């Protein structure tokens, strides 16, 4: 008798308990496959701290491949490209193999929108988290030659974390002090209580970090940030922190999705149309009650859910 196939897309937080107990699932005769583009999973909450040098990569990640294979599961290092719910297969980005499933659970994650980004040179998004390690290396490499102008685009907590950790990195290393600007859109921390915004401004001001409010970013890249009011600022490196959007795999696969493109799930975290497909984390849209409201990004007129803006 062919064993039932459990396939997990992603090894993130929504799958932690399953991964921890994977051996018990395998021992009952099920075959478990985990698909993930990296051998490791990084904890996003500690990503800015890695950028600033508080943590090393090994402090904020765990070895997904080792965890899976050590408990008798199969690990596929690749990115899930699409799902065919009728054939019950997952298609991969870098392989023609189709991965069959009887039950599929999706923790496909999210990405930072690229609206208004003119090119990828010098642009570092907070997802995937590994990108912040590359950003750290680039700041040190270029910062040893000259003072950099660094643009952090976003008005929420993530922009403050990134800007503060760039400042901390400059304090910890032998680089020229950078000019750090936060392009906060209408107002810094405008969705938070007023006192939080006041404290944030005080902390950032004490560190010489500029806060630009009152106009949204129109475009970034090619050495500058352009605001909607026509003002431009030079920038060597860019850090968009304008919220996140769910993986496009569900829309691409024709599955029911919410207004943000996240997998539409019921109170049991099941797809509203396919009962053998589950989802969790920031790739879903919870049908009974949305878990976050629409957020206006620092690029006005773009709508992103969920996000800290």
Sum this structure up briefly:
By secondary structure, the chain is of the alpha/beta class.
Number of domains: 2
Overall outline: elongated
Proportion in β-strands: 25-35%
* CATH architectural category of the largest domain: 3-Layer(bba) Sandwich
The CATH topology of the largest domain: FAD/NAD(P)-binding domain
Unreliable stretches: 293-309
Q: So what's the CATH class of the largest domain?
A: Alpha Beta
Q: Note the quaternary state here.
A: single chain
Helix content: 10-25%
SS summary, helix count? 8
SS content category? alpha/beta
- The span between the termini is 52 Å
Tell me the total number of β-strands: 23
CATH superfamily of the largest domain: FAD/NAD(P)-binding domain
Mean pLDDT, rounded to whole units?
91
**Mind summarizing the main beta sheet?**
5 strands, parallel
The largest sheet has its strands arranged as 5-2-1-9-20
**How many whole angstroms does the radius of gyration measure?**
21 Å
Describe this structure in words.
The strands form 8 sheets. The protein has a 5-stranded parallel beta sheet. The chain contains 8 helices and 23 strands. The protein is an alpha/beta fold and 309 residues long. The protein has 2 domains: 5-110 and 245-291, FAD/NAD(P)-binding domain; 130-240, FAD/NAD(P)-binding domain (3-Layer(bba) Sandwich), CATH 3.50.50.60.
List keywords for this structure.
309 residues, 2 domains, disordered C terminus, 27% strand, 5-stranded parallel sheet, FAD/NAD(P)-binding domain, 4-stranded parallel sheet, alpha/beta, 8 helices
């Amino acid at each position: 008798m062919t064993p039932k196939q459990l396939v997990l897309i992603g090894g993130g937080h929504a799958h932690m308990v399953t991964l921890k107990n994977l051996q018990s699932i395998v021992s009952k005769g099920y075959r478990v496959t985990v698909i993930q583009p990296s051998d490791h999973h990084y904890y996003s909450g500690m990503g800015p701290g890695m950028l600033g040098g508080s943590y090393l990569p090994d402090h904020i990640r765990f070895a997904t491949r080792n965890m899976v294979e050590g408990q008798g599961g199969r690990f596929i290092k690749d990115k899930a490209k699409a799902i065919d719910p009728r054939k019950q297969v997952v298609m991969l980005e870098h392989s023609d193999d189709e991965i069959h499933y009887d039950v599929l659970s999706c923790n496909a994650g999210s990405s930072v929108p690229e609206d208004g980004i003119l090119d990828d040179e010098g642009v570092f998004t907070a997802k995937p988290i590994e990108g912040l390690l590359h950003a750290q290396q680039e700041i040190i490499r270029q910062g040893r030659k000259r003072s950099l102008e660094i643009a952090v685009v976003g008005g929420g907590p993530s922009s403050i974390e990134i800007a503060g950790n760039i400042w901390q990195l400059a304090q910890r290393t032998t680089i020229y002090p950078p000019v750090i600007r936060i392009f906060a859109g209408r107002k810094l921390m405008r969705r938070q209580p007023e006192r939080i915004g006041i404290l944030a401004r005080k902390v950032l001001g004490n560190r010489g970090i500029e806060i630009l409010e009152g106009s949204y970013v129109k475009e970034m890249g090619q050495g500058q940030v352009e605001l909607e009011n026509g003002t431009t600022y030079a920038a060597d490196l860019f850090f968009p922190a304008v919220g996140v959007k769910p993986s496009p795999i569900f829309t691409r696969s024709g599955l029911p999705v919410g207004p943000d493109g996240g997998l539409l799930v019921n109170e049991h975290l099941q797809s509203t149309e396919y009962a053998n497909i589950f989802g969790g984390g920031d790739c879903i849209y919870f049908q009974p009650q949305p878990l976050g409201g629409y957020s206006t990004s620092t690029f006005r007129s773009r709508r992103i859910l969920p996000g800290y803006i």
